[in-house]
Structure prediction request, 478 residues.
Amino acid sequence: MTGERRRLLLEILGFALVVALVATYAVRRGGAAGPARLEDQRLLLGTVVSVTVFTNDSERGRGAIEAAFAEMERVESLTSRHAASGEISRINAGGRTGDRVSIGGELASVIERSLHFSRVSGGAFDVTVAPLVALWLGPEGMRVPSRSAVSAALPKVDYTKLALNAGAGTLTVPLGMSLDLDGIAKGHAVDRAVRALRLRGIQSGIVDAGGNIGFLGAPPRGGMWRVGIKHPRREGILGTLFVERGSVATSGDYQHFTVVDGRRYHHILDPKTGQPAHGVMSVTVVTARAIDADALSTAVFVLGAERGMELIETLDGVEGVIVTGQDDVDRVLVSSGLAERFAEET
Amino acid sequence: MVLVMTGLRRTAALLTRADRVVLYALVGGGVVLLAATWRGGAGGHARISWPGGTRVVRLDEDARYDVEGPLGVTVVVVAGGSVSVMSSPCREHVCERMGPVRNRGGTVVCVPNRVIVTVQGAGGDRIDATTR
Prediction:
């Protein structure tokens, strides 16, 4: 073999080796050629909210993140029972007198959506649950109220007694009743934040409000978003969901709870009994809109495994994972549309 | 596989000692480069944020971090690849009961002391977010 041919061969080998090294290096660095990941997190809506965008325009990305947080702050002040000057406080003040109050269009649409899910779930989700929440969740956290206190509060919980006229922008809250939007507000905030990112030209991003997650576009690597579902009793995840777009939300009995005399009392209340719903550990719902996922995860949790899965299967564009058990996972029910999109940890 | 091995053997036979030195130098340099990036890229990390600032910590190095919040010191501990709140001056100590987290998106938060610990990760993470 001539020296020239040998040099050529060596150059080819060397080039191939360099290409392999560079490719391996890029993979190890997480695909450095793709858009950069920008992320920020804040305490909002009573939880940790993180906003992530994937873009090579850092100025645009930072601006979009700020806009998303600003939008969620606005939603929080709109929907919080604790904001003295907020619209919900004014509505609940109306409930103290039974007066009809005027409400803005955005809040009317959120309440309208709440009432929709109250109807489809047969009252398992109820926006008038506030009197019960006040008994179970005090300023110092979860507590167990007396049976008599719960019995006295139950007549004040009935969504069918609300009179909403969204067109006219009015709502009548019967005497003694009050609203609690905590079961749907985070989802609405996530939807608005995702919209804020889109309006600022972001094509790929994640808004995560304490596990209520909204996805914008597709992940920069392509394919589907990979969402871990927290294990309800142990460290780590129960399994991984693969979703192309939309939103995911989870309601679990481990989020706010207290143990009294060996019994676990959590914050997801059955509006019909006034007690924490039993039999289910966690419910994860996948829908197009985060507001729907938020409300439905609570509704399905209260309905229980069988009736809850029935509801999921009857609703278009809704999928879910229901985990049953008490001290450890008993069963994991997966809706038909997720059969090939949920991988349980082994 | 047999064809590849045969090809490599024939190619090796064509190389002079100088050729081999150059090749070995390329391979050796590559191994060193990958070893350097492997350690930095493989391990996840956690972001600890509090009203006074932010700190990113490695999850592959056991350590204790004292974080000063408005109520006092929250002690964040990294052990065995997980991060958790060991103690905090809040009333209910919910953060201490949250347990350790290790996957990207896993969060431990002390709301009263305004301390947030979130697991972030390297490019090789299996998940994009965690619903909880």
